[in-house]
Amino acid sequence: MNSIQKDIAHLRVEYASKPFDESDLIKDPFEQFSVWLKEAIDANANEPNAMTLATVRDDGQPTARVVLLKEFNENGFVFFSNFESNKGIEIEKNPKVALVFCWLEMQRQVRIEGVARKISAKESDDYFHIRPHGSKIGAHASPQSKKIENRKTLEDRFSEFEKLFSEKPIVRPHHWGGYIVQPVSIEFWQGRQSRLHDRFLFSRNTDLSWTIDRLAP
User: Fold this and answer.
1) Does residue 111 carry a catalytic annotation?
2) What is the phi/psi pair of residue 56, to 5°?
3) How many CA atoms lie within 13 A of 91 on its CB side?
4) What is the pLDDT of residues 107-140, one digit of tens each?
5) Among 57, 65, 117, 195, which one carries the catalytic annotation?
6) How far apart are CA 101 and CA 188, in angstroms?
7) Which residues contact 35 (CB under 8 A, 6 or more apart)?
8) Is the Cβ–Cβ distance between 217 and 196 less than 8 Å?
């Protein structure tokens, strides 16, 4: 093994955060998430709305990437993407997905499992219109997940669409929009000393209420 491989085995952070006990837990998981997200923002966590999105390919191989949370409410967690990207194709075939938020500054994780579906065209339009100019052009220019010859190919496409939309409003491309992940479970994880972490799992019942269980770390 080289030196970095040896060093990895000895990398260790002793978590020393405050306890997260039953008395601290808010019984509505969305309210609990809201509190933790605000605390992450207030702590200047790096990209506090970044979340890992895991999907599953046809062959059963899980795939994951980081996307940005743009909205959440009692119905679920919203992000935006190219519908024709790998993740879009995978969601179309198997809408069961998982999300993970990791706030290292807070020594916290939130794990979500659920089902993804597209939001309405109007909701996607409303968000698209508030995106920065370059991001709007990029949504048209990038054939996301497809193989391209080189970066110049991408930059040329960007220039073509930038010229096209210099004379008319930028409309949302039909292949781009939002998804909402409707959770069936939400787990809150708080790092603690000696790896005796605090974990609480919210599981959704058929009547839309939640069952709460403490999990061993």
Assistant:
1) no
2) -130, 130
3) 24
4) 999 999 999 999 999 999 999 999 999 999 999 9
5) 195
6) 10
7) 26
8) yes
Do the beta carbons of residue 188 and residue 199 sit within 8 Å?
yes
Distance of CA 151 to the CA centre of its chain: 26
Q: CA 21, 182, 137 angle in degrees (round to 5)?
A: 115
Tokens 């306890």 belong to which residue? 19
Q: Amino acid letter at 123?
A: E
Q: Which residues of 6-44 are buried (b: 16+ CB within 10 A; e: fewer)?
A: eeeeeeeeeeeeeebeeeebeeebbebbeebbeebeeee
**pLDDT tens for residues 132-190?**
999 999 999 888 888 888 999 889 998 988 888 988 899 999 999 999 999 999 999 99
| Residue in this structure with the two tokens 């019942």, named with its chain if needed | 205
Rounded Cα gap, residues 42 and 64, in angstroms: 27
- Token pair for 159: 């220039």
Beta strands in 36-146 (DSSP E): 50-56, 62-68, 71-73, 76-82, 96-103, 108-118
Instruction: State both tokens at 54.
Output: 């895991």
